[in-house]
Design a protein that fits this description.
Blueprint: H1 11-21, E1 30-31, H2 34-40, E2 43-48, H3 58-67, H4 71-74, E3 78-81, H5 85-97, E4 101-106, H6 111-119, E5 123-127, H7 131-145, E6 148-149, H8 156-172, E7 178-182, H9 187-199, E8 204-210, H10 215-222, H11 246-253, E9 256-260, H12 262-276, H13 282-293, E10 302-307
Parallel strand pairs: 2-10, 3-4, 3-6, 4-5, 7-8, 7-10, 8-9
Antiparallel strand pairs: 1-2
Helix pairs in contact: 1-3, 1-8, 3-5, 3-8, 5-6, 8-9, 9-11, 12-13
């Protein structure tokens, strides 16, 4: 039996988060595709967070975090560093609450995500594409503005909010064998793993990660934190390191992390576009890529996959 490792959101905190954010988010659809099922020799249900507000699951955590703050905490606005989806989500959630959002973004962030942050009213400061540069620049922004940091994943309110996607998936499809999510910083994965543990402890939780950004895989297998250094993957949302909160939860409640090639990510992304007619970004395609690369791990299973986001740059599609 897996041992509970605090700190982590409780089941009640996840339920409270779900109630808190319901008026503001979409309850996204769960879709299946017979063609992909036949191809994978498995039955797969896709939780379409690509159809979520701001185009990604990040709207859940950001809304929960902002809506959990009191007026005094909100008076100088909020701040974060993010390559894109959390940046959009926090800018959107801040605008709903009538406060400012100060966003630090790597200079190589997707143009579509930069444009979206600006459209939601976020004020952007660019930095180099390293964790050290992100954190140092964010400290400067906070020092200048007095804004409250809302970390993209290393925040218990964020984790509880992200867990609600799995809650909805399990409400709709209660008898799964495996639930899969991509892993970058680990907010979605740790929330998913907690929700599955609380609701159905027999469920296996398997994460997927690009082989060219495999710090979570190495950290998980070696049971010690290994930071992301110069990740080089098309899945831009998965280039970040695990957090001090997310890593222990993942060690305790995730069953496996598998890695996939860039070619498989592109093939899975294209398969989802062509067969299901759903727009996903590369990060969202990573779990399906794992099924394509390692079919024997998944054959004959009932699998839920969280499609994490749909903010693809239409001018830079990877198969063109």
């Amino acid at each position: 039996m897996k041992k509970f490792v605090p700190p982590a959101p409780s089941l009640q905190e996840i339920v409270d988060a779900h109630q808190r954010i319901r008026p503001f988010i979409h309850q996204t659809p769960v879709l299946t595709c017979n063609g992909i099922n036949r191809f994978a020799d498995a039955r797969i249900w896709f939780k379409c967070e690509n159809m979520q507000k701001v185009g990604a699951f990040k709207a859940r955590g950001a809304t929960n975090a902002v809506r959990s703050l009191d007026a005094d905490q909100l008076k100088h606005g909020v701040a974060t560093h993010s390559s894109g989806n959390h940046a959009q989500a926090l800018s959107w959630a801040a605008r709903l609450s009538g406060i400012n959002a100060h966003i630090v973004m790597p200079s190589n962030s997707s143009k579509v995500k930069v444009d979206a942050v600006r459209s939601y009213g976020g004020t952007i400061t660019f930095c180099e594409s390293t964790l050290d540069a992100r954190e140092a620049t964010l400290l400067q922004v906070i020092g200048r503005t007095g804004a409250l940091e809302i970390h993209p994943y290393n925040n218990l309110k964020i984790i509880a909010g992200q867990a609600t996607a799995a809650v909805e998936l399990l409400e709709e499809v209660p008898d799964l064998d495996i639930v899969m999510a991509p892993v970058g910083g680990g907010g979605l994965l740790s929330g998913t793993a907690l929700a599955c543990h609380y609701i159905d402890p027999k469920l296996r939780v398997i994460a997927a990660e690009p082989a060219q950004a495999d710090d979570a895989f190495r950290s998980f297998t070696q049971k010690t934190f290994i930071p992301s250094v110069n990740p080089n993957t098309i899945a831009d949302g998965l280039r970040t390191s695990l957090g001090s909160l997310t890593f222990p939860i993942i060690l305790a409640y995730v069953d496996n992390i598998v890695t996939v090639s860039e070619a498989s990510i592109i093939a899975a992304m294209r398969l989802l576009w062509e067969r299901m007619k759903v727009v996903v970004e590369p990060s969202a395609a990573v779990p399906l890529a794992a099924l394509m690369e390692q079919p024997k791990l998944f054959q004959g299973q009932k699998i839920g996959i969280i499609l994490s986001g749909g903010n693809a740059d239409l001018d830079q599609l990877p198969w063109i």
